[in-house]
Every structure is written in C-alpha cells, then in structure tokens.
Amino acid sequence: MQKYQQLLKENNITQSMSRKGNCLDNSVMENFFGHLKSELLYLQKFESMEHFVKELEDYINYYNNKRIKCKLKGLSPVEYRIQSLSVA
After folding, report:
1. InterPro entries given for it (predicted)?
2. Which distant-in-sequence residues (6+ apart) come within 8 Å of 75 by Cβ?
C-alpha cells in the first residue's frame, strides 16, 4: 500500500479520503463504468487498441451528448446542464 501511495504522491494525485464504507465519492464513476461495461465492452470484440480507443471516444461522446435520461427530464446530460445554467 505504501508503494501505491508513494506513486500517487509522485504524480500529484490525491487519494480518496472518505470513511470506510462510505461510497458516495465513488458512486458517480462506479455508475459510469457500469454503463460502459454493459453498453460497450460486453457487446463487442475489439480488433486492436486503436479500435478500442475510437469506440471508447465515440461512447463517451454518446454518453454525454446523446444519451437521453428520464431523471434528466428527457434530456442528455449536456443539454440538462445547459438548461440548468440558463435558469440559474
């Protein structure tokens, strides 16, 4: 564990500091990676690393700009943020 913490320090990365059993700081990324696995990784095989990177970039664009969410009033995440900012 000390080697891991040293590597983080050398790269100016702050380790998560939540209490044991508190997953709130991870929940957003855990949710994203769950979607990524089920909507991209498990659905296809990649011919090369370049192919994977291209598909990953396309998926992230889809996830942020085109994916409609009921919780976001039928808007994509970017559309919802733009709407929220214009109201504020």
Report:
1. Integrase_cat-core, RNaseH-like_sf, RNaseH_sf, Transposase_IS3/IS150/IS904
2. 68, 69, 83
How many CA atoms lie within 13 Å of 74's alpha carbon, on the beta-carbon side?
A: 0
d(CA 25, CA 38): 22
Residue 54: pLDDT over 90: yes
Query: Which pTM value belongs to this model?
Result: 0.66
Alpha helices (H) along the chain: 2-10, 27-39, 49-65, 77-87
Q: How far apart are CA 34 and CA 28, in angstroms?
A: 10
pLDDT of residue 59 exceeding 70: yes
